[in-house]
Structures are given as C-alpha cells and as structure tokens.
Amino acid sequence: MGNGNGQHSHDYQILFNSIPGGACLCSRENGCTMTEISGSFLELTGFSREELEEKFGNRLAEMINPADRGKMTDTLLSLDERSENKSYSFRLLCKDGSYKWVADSMRLLREESGSCQVFCVLQDITESGNAREELRLSLERHRIIMDQTTDIIFEWNIPADTLVFSSNWKKKFGYEAVYHGNGSEEEFPHVHAEDRAVLLKLIDNMKKGAAYSTEEVRIRNSDGNYIWCRVRSTDQYDASGRPLKVVGVITDIDKEKQMIDTLRRRAERDALTGLYNREETEQQIRRYLKEEPEELCALFMIDTDNFKQVNDCYGHLFGDAVLSELAAGMKKLARQDDVVGRIGGDEFTVFLKNIPSRKTGEEKADELLSIFRNLFLEEKQAITVRCSVGVAFYPEDGTDFPSLYRSADLALYQAKTRGKDQYRLYQSHGGDSAARPGYSSLGAAIDSDQRFSGIPGDLVNYVFQILYDTSDLERSIQLVLEIVGKRFDVSRAYIFENSEDGKYADNTYEWCNEGILPQKEELQHIPYEGLDGYKDLFRDGSVFYCRDIRSLKPAQVALFEKQGIRSTLQCAVREGETFRGFVGFDECTGVRLWTKEEVGMLSLISQVLTTFLQKKRSIDRDRQTAIRLNTILDVQDAYIYVIDETSYELLYLNHKTRDLDPAARKGMTCHQAFFCNSRPCENCPLTGGDGEIYNPRYNVWTRVRAASMKWGEHNASLLTCFDITEYKHMQDTDQPR
Q1: Does 159 sit behind a cis peptide bond, omega within 30 degrees of 0 on the bond before it?
Q2: What is the helix, strand, coil percentage profile of the chain, to 5?
C-alpha cells in the first residue's frame, strides 16, 4: 500500500505540474494563500517558489493587479461545492514587473478533514486581453466621434453583396434601409429614379477598386420628400489587392445644395434687375445656337434713349428704380425659356426662341417700345422713357452668336440714327450697315457692377460670405473660383494641395474660361523634385507673380508651356510655417501685366480660400478617422453589440455578430434575436449575471463584458462577447475523470 500511495502521489505531482499555463491550490481567506504551486505556474510568472514566499507570502491576491482584486475575491467567495467551474480574467504580476492577462478557471474542493481549498487553472490570454483593452479604447474613441456626427456610415461586403448602415439612417430618413442586392430591379428603392444611374456609376467604380469615390444623389425620407446627400466611399482590399469591402459616409447636403443653387443664380444674375448678367446672357445664347436648332429665333438689342437725363434729373437711386421696372416689363414680354439680360448700364438683350414668323418678332418689338413709353405715365410725376431696338433673326441674319449679335447691333445703330424711339430689322444691304461697325457697348461696365467691384473689399467680403454661409465647402470653393475667374477675366483659376510629406502636389480644384482646355486630370501627384526649386518662387512667403513665364528656369518653363500658360499669379497656401500648396490664376491668351490692385485683391481672396480649405481638410480627416474606427470595430474578433438598458432593444451589431446570425437586426431585443426568448435571460449580464454564457442555438460559449454608455439619446450597454468555445472544450477534456 505504501508503494502504491507513493506512486499515486508521484503521478499526481507530474499531472499537477504539467497543467498548461499554471495551476495552484489556495485558500479562500488570508489573501488566497497558495498551498500548492505547479511548475507551470512558476514558468508563467518567472518567480521561484522561494521568491513567492519571500515577496508575497504565497498569497495569490498580492500578485493580482489591484484593479482586479475585488472581483477576484468576490468570485472566490461565491464558490460552493455545488457550483460548476467559475472563471474570471485578471492581470497577474510577473517577475519582470509586467502584468499578464490570465483566465482563471476555479473550482471548490473539500478535503477529508472538512477544510476547503480552491483549485485554480490559469491560462495565459495576454494577447487577447491587451486586444480587449485596445478595443475598449477604440470603442470609446469611436463613440466620441459618432456622438459628434450626424453622418450615416455604411459598409458593403462586395463578394456577399450585403449592405449595412449605421443607426443614423433611421434617424435621418425615418425608416430602416432596405437593400435588395446589386443587379435587382429594386436595388435602390430609396434613391430618386433620376439619380440611380449616378449611384450605379459609383458602385461600378468601387467594384473596379477605385480608392475613393464621391457622388451626389437624392434619398427619400419617410415623408416622401427627397434629400440631397453626398455619398463618399473608400475601398478595402484583400491580400491579393482585390476590392473586398467598401466603407463610406452619407452626408446630408440638402441645405447646402439649395444655398449653392441660390449662390449660382446670384452669380448668373445682375444684382440690380435680376436679369441675366452680361456673361450669362451670352453663354446661354451661344449654347442654344450651338445645337443648330431648326426653328426661327429673334435677338433684340435694346438701348434706353434718354437714361442719362433720368439720372441727371432724379439721381442714380431713382435711375436704378427705373431700370428695375423696365426689367420687370421685359420679363413679362418674354416666355420662361427665353433669355432676357442686362448687357450694359442701360442696355438690354431679349432672345426669343422658336417664334412662328418674322411678323411675331416685329409685334414683340412694338410691344417693347410700348412698354418703355407707358411704364411710368401713371406716376405722380410722369417720367418719359424711350428706347431703340435692333432686331436680327436666326438663321437668316446669323447662325451663331457673334454673327447674330453683329446683325442686331447694326440694326440698333440704324434705329438710333433715324430718330430713336423705334425698332429696325437688320437689312443685309443697307448703306448704314456697311458704314458702321455697330452701336451696342456689349462688354462695357455696368454701373451697379462698378459700385460693387469698385472697392476691393466688397468682392473679398462677398467671397467670404459665400464660403461662410455654407458647409458644402467643396462646391462653394469651385463656385468662388468661377466668380473670381470671370470677374478678373483670367484663363484658368485653380488650387494645388501638397501631399502630407510635401513632396508632391495635386490639382484639386479648377475653373477654366471658355476655350481653355482643363488640366486638372493631367496635374495629379506632380513631384516638386525636378522643378528646379519651384517652392522658392514664393520668395516673399506668399505670392509668386510672373508676367512672362519664359523668364523662368527651363524645367519650370516646360511645365507652364505644356499647359499653354503665358502669365501666372500664384498665392501660397500655408499652415503655420508649412507650405501646403497654392491658389493660382493663369493667362493663356497672351502675356499679361497684372496690376498692383489685381495682385492685392487676388492675394486677399486666396487667403480667404486657404482658411476655409484648411477647415474642410480638417473635417475630411475627422470623417476618415470615424470610418477607420468603425472598420476597427468590425474587424475585432469578438461579438460586439449595443442594447438599450431599459427595452433591451439592439442599437448596433458589429460585423462578427451579424455573421453569426444574419437574421439579427437592430430594433429586435437581444433575448429575442439571440435566444428566441420573449423575456430577458436569467443570467443577463445587465443584471449581474454570470460572465460566461452558453448559447445552445449557435453552440457557442462566450465570456461577456458589459459597460454602460450613452448611445445617442439612449442609456445603453456595450456588450463585448469573446468566444471561449475552444477553451471550454479543452477544459472539459482536461477535467479529471
């Protein structure tokens, strides 16, 4: 018997010391004093038996991180003989001063003497423990960002063709999003029918692996109204470089869209009369005639005969009121599709499309004369206003804008020289026509324009207001380049932005005047190296002005000549002392002498643009951070979901959770979605239930951590469930039989 007992004890020690990770027997009191310690426990911590005695008095509690001791002690005291194994994770001090995360599986053992000891088996889970801590911090950062944004985050799994949206979709549109799959007849039921082709283009770009894609579409809300939204997407790739997932953001730009449309209309219209301004009048007629319509049209050139007298007698403010009334009368004469514009101080143009006959044109000319004669007759103090009208017909008198304009202009000259207050039709063989080059001052400055632009600060304030009043900075910046480009009659206005390391520049915004070829697509990722000190051209720290680019270094001349540039003015974009790019204005039609006033004005406008551009880039960086954090959340190797603490309603599910049960949806209760129960689970973590939960539906064991948080306006709990199924199977295998 003695030999048998000795052999049994020897076998027990071998088994005890071979337990992976570490094992010990300890009391539940006196700091969990360890009575037996396995060799694997010593290997796990790096301490010798003597050091454990000397440093800690063999008390396990002294080796546990102070933040974890309370829960560990509570778990030990809750053990009884009827209990199954209980587990708890904590940080265990090692000899090198570091802490290791360990999962401790504990069971109460009663000895023959009646005393109780706890048998502990420790598994090193440091890697997953650190990952959980990093995840907790990531979730906190993610929550902070999500609380500050109203944007909708979405993720599209390309191979599976599944599309999920963040909870902001329901907040924004009032219903849950539905996706029937790419290629189905109702793949985007919420998107305006006219915009579905745009969205299909974005999807095609994403499938092809485009790094970034952006489009604007209208999405219907629960009231049946459509909201303009910008969709931005970023591709993620698998190890072979093929597009795997798409993560993106949907931003409400409806108010900004309306504001931009208002600003654009303001840029196209004369500020005083509300008619089209000079440039827009010409452009609309040019575009229409370029299509070579098979119909009769009429162009009227109208000059107010005695407007100077009105201004001299009654003043400019009164004269402005007269012009406004005349404009209102001309708009009543024309149809909605016709073009009515103010092309000079007191000169106007009316372009009538698709009229039935020349006689109709003559009748309209008579109406114009009558409008001018009778508009102010009923005033308390009658005012006499007259006009002269020149009329030319398309296609007989001209097949494009220049020829038609010249014919109408010559007809106006005839009306002026033959006594005014009348209209004349263009006569191709009239003697007066050959004798005069024309009358109208198309292109001359308009008084109201001069009052607006005479003071440089007015234009700068106008640009500032455009950028300040809208959050759609990208479209507003483009609009500002167009307004400024037209006002200063430059060939091209643009912005270049440097890469983060400052080695390359990208042309991010560009406006081109008529007849000037765009260069934006050709000017991406341009290296400064090889341009012979291009950054040094901004010698005074802000402005580079060159009247004739041929005076520059050969590499720089080659760059400009390739774009057809003859003169240029560029203003640096700086962030602190760092050169971040430049705003530029080019002249391609010839060498240009930039005046001191022009340089000063464009420099001020560039500074305003720079301020708002840097704000936009900062916002873009924040949004990209939100996308990255959401991606981090989805790639965690844990089931993560958020539930309302009162209703148990699911508010969020990460990708791993959705993969486990695709039928689980936001809005369902967690006990309904995961356990098919109508009531909360008895061991629910929210009510202090066991940290380890078995789900028979999926045959999965998880260790659950619950943390209270705010999710929007909800008092919620974040549940992080780590899959320990394999560990539990190993534990069952290792149990003594």
Answers
A1: no
A2: 40, 25, 35
pLDDT tens-place string over residues 10-40: 666 777 776 777 888 888 888 889 988 988 8
Strand order in the sheet with 650-653: 650-653, 639-644, 714-723, 700-711, 692-695
CA distance 538 to 610: 16
The pLDDT tens digits for 306-333 are 888 887 777 776 777 788 888 888 888 8
Q: Which residues of 632-664 are buried (b: 16+ CB within 10 A; e: fewer)?
A: ebbebebbbbbbbbeebbbbbbbbbbbebeeeb
CA pair distance 635, 707, nearest whole angstrom: 20
Q: Can you name the residues that pair with 649 across neighbouring β-strands?
A: 669
Euclidean distance between the first and the last CA atom of the chain, given in angstroms as a whole number:
22
Q: Interhelix angle for 358-374 vs 316-333, to 10°?
A: 150
Supply 109's token pair. Answer: 């053992």
Q: CA–CA separation, 676 vs 144, rounded Å? A: 33
Both tokens assigned to 282: 């010409």
Tell if the pTM clears 0.90, that is, is over it: no
What is the β-pairing status of strands 423-425 and 387-394?
Answer: parallel
Q: Is-contact 520 507, C-beta < 8 A? A: yes
Number of residues in the chain? 737
CB neighbour burial string for 154-164, b if at least 16 within 10 angstroms, e if fewer: bbbebeeeebb
As a whole number of angstroms, the distance between CA 469 and CA 3 comes to 94
Residues 6+ positions from 361 with CB-CB distance below 8 Å: 298, 352, 355, 391, 393, 425
